[in-house]
Amino acid sequence: MPDSLPPDSVGLVEPQTLHFDEPLALASGQTLPHYDLVVETYGTLNADRSNAVLICHALSGHHHAAGYHSLDERKPGWWDRCIGPGKPIDTNRFFVVSLNNLGGCHGSTGPTSTNPDTGHCYGPDFPVVTVKDWVNSQAHLADRLGIKQWAAVVGGSLGGMQALQWSLSYPDRLRHAVVIASTPRLTAQNIAFNEVARKAITSDPEFFDGRYADHNATPRRGLMLARMVGHITYLSDASMGEKFGRELREEAYKFGYDAEFQVESYLRYQGERFSETFDANTYLLMTRALDYFDPAYDYDNNLAAAMSQARCEFLVLSFSTDWRFTPARSEELVNAMIAARRKVSYAEIDAPWGHDAFLIPTPRYEDIFTAYMDRVAREVQQ
């Protein structure tokens, strides 16, 4: 942490917990009688409440998108590079809302919350939620904040799916959707990766059919393996090669199975750290939400018919080395938007970091993102 806050930081921020008493009907047929959402806000809401931007997070994300919780915090929020004064999402011009989704493990109601029916934590009894369910809860959040229409809904990866779903579920409640490094639905390969990750967790002896909290246990090994598998898919071969190559931790082979290569050590570290901060049932829930997302499903698998429901304008961005959600998937989405006569801007960014590139501003990425959000801001000021 620097001695003073950077001038382009939103500064010290404090999360808020908002309670909702109205029942939320879920796609699964179950209902949450009430729930909490943890949110952070940055910037100032203007008089007519027209400059609000919603940030939707990816699988392991949360509400802390920008700024610092304390002067001792080592790193800022997960998207601090893009949110703040003079940044693509300029908090001098926008009121930014970031939340932890339902089912999360960072304060919003989820598997680690208390089940009102039992007095114990939900654990595996927390209902499976979908991207549609998240968007419905976010609409209640907008109502609570007095925001009738978002200037933009923005997200990367799973967050991009939410931005896309907003345009279909509430077409009149957003003017722009920014869909970054995302896809209109997972490929079979992506579903397979998610299943391997889930199997790693559920096979852990400490999982106890999801009731590990009742046993004062945590399936750390399963979570670690799930994160290691996921992390490999977020990076490109080139970026891993550039960062680690075949470098050994020491000079000679040890002819054993401990971490000898730097990349092995890195993956183990990432997995161990993740297993200490993330909930296993939440990981299962989030990956299943990814699997289920498919806007075309309700339109006889016709994505263009689905996109004809939208009214907003779109920015779609993909990254050349993203093999998890390839540019081809973004192009499929853009072609459906064009067929549906929606207004869409699209760019494929040449970046070497794979899927994680959406978190790492490169000059072209930052220029395009900034230019688009500048147009959104100018519309607000008119």
Record keyword descriptors for this entry:
10 helices, eight-stranded mixed beta sheet, about 375 residues, alpha/beta
State the total count of DSSP E strands: 10
**Helix-strand category:** alpha/beta
Let me know the average pLDDT.
93
Gap between N and C termini = 39 Å
Largest sheet properties: 8 strands, mixed
Tally of individual helices = 10
Share of residues in helices: 25-40%
Q: Report strand %.
A: 5-15%
Shape: globular
The strand order across the widest sheet is: 1-4-6-5-7-8-9-10
- Spell the H/E element sequence: EEEEEEHEHEHHHHHHEHEH
Describe this structure as you would to a colleague:
The protein is of the alpha/beta class. The chain has helices at 131-145, 158-169, 188-202, 220-234, 237-243, 262-277, 280-292, 303-307, 327-339, 363-381, and strands spanning 16-20, 24-25, 31-32, 35-42, 52-56, 95-100, 152-156, 176-180, 313-319, 344-349. Strands 1-4-6-5-7-8-9-10 form an eight-stranded mixed sheet, with helices on both faces. Strands 2-3 form a two-stranded antiparallel sheet. The chain is globular and about 60 Å long. The model has no long low-confidence stretch (mean pLDDT 93). It is found in: Cytoplasm. Its EC number is 2.3.1.46. It comes from Marinobacter halodurans. Substrate binds at residues 227, 356.
